[in-house]
Design goal:
heterodimer; A: 114 residues; mainly alpha; 2 domains; B: 144 residues; alpha/beta; Rossmann fold; 4 helices; 5 strands
């Protein structure tokens, strides 16, 4: 059958049956690890929180490097632009529709009247 | 995660300073030196409460440290033992009526073993750890 045929690219190969076997073995290993875990662990308590010297754990973004840090130089160099644009993105749909209508009205004036 | 049953008798302790003057800390560190070498019995200090069986608390629990002590106590998996080292943690000592205290320790979390002294000698701390070990075995065996 074509569906279980081995696809060879010259550099490697792909076989769905082998992939399924590898996935099943991986899941089995993960399950065995999970099975040997500490059973007295209490969900929803401080035991689920990271240990930071007893301090209350902050939200993840405050502890880890945010994605935004990766392009810090970009936003820093364009901060004049961002300072103007970011407050406009209020997250309120009504605002966005008003902007849409405003821009449409402006284009109408530009295209039809002028 | 328990690897084998032989690890049941290894007692791992987490040390928490709730406002101590460091006198007790010096004695705790002295207790784990090669002179006494409790590590040959599997007794050692660990860096995270999540790995600990025993919480060793020093100091009289100042207000700033109370929520942190509660958090650390909660993060230790059951069954757990709390050991109070030093007179400050036991009674508040000189600071018993200070405006800045939420302690002593047993006003904040339940304490199983008290090691009095200002500071207690390493022999007394090790004796307390042995008492903790006995109590932990009783709890694990359903004796309490």
């Amino acid at each position: 059958m074509d569906i279980i045929a081995t696809l060879s690219s010259g550099y490697g190969f792909w076989n769905p049956v082998m992939w399924l076997i590898a996935a099943a073995v991986s899941l089995l290993v993960v399950y065995l690890f999970w099975l040997r875990g500490e059973k007295s662990y209490k969900k929803g308590t401080a035991q689920g929180q990271p240990f930071i010297g007893g301090n209350v754990a902050k939200e993840k973004g405050a502890l880890h490097i945010r994605a935004g840090n990766l392009y810090w130089g970009y936003t820093e160099s364009l901060k004049g632009y961002y300072r103007w644009v970011v407050p406009l993105h209020t997250g309120v749909l009504n605002d966005y529709v008003l902007w849409f209508l405003g821009v449409m009205a402006f284009l109408l004036v530009v295209v039809v009247v002028l | 995660m328990k690897l084998t049953k032989s690890f049941n008798k290894s007692l791992w302790a987490f040390h928490f300073n709730s406002g101590s003057c460091n006198g007790c800390e010096i004695e705790i560190v002295a207790a784990i030196t090669p002179r006494y070498d409790p590590e040959r019995f599997g007794i050692k200090l660990v860096g995270s409460p999540k790995h600990a069986d025993v919480l060793i608390v020093t100091g009289p629990v100042v207000k700033k440290m109370k929520p942190r002590l509660l958090s650390v106590y909660e993060q230790i998996p059951d069954p757990k033992i709390v050991m109070c080292v030093g007179t400050c943690g036991t009674s508040g000592a000189t600071f018993y009526d200070s405006y800045n205290l939420d302690g002593p320790v047993d006003d904040v979390i339940p304490v199983d073993v008290y090691v009095p002294g200002c500071p207690p000698r390493p022999e007394a701390i090790i004796h307390g750890v042995v008492k903790a070990l006995v109590k932990l075995e009783r709890i694990e065996g359903g004796g309490i």
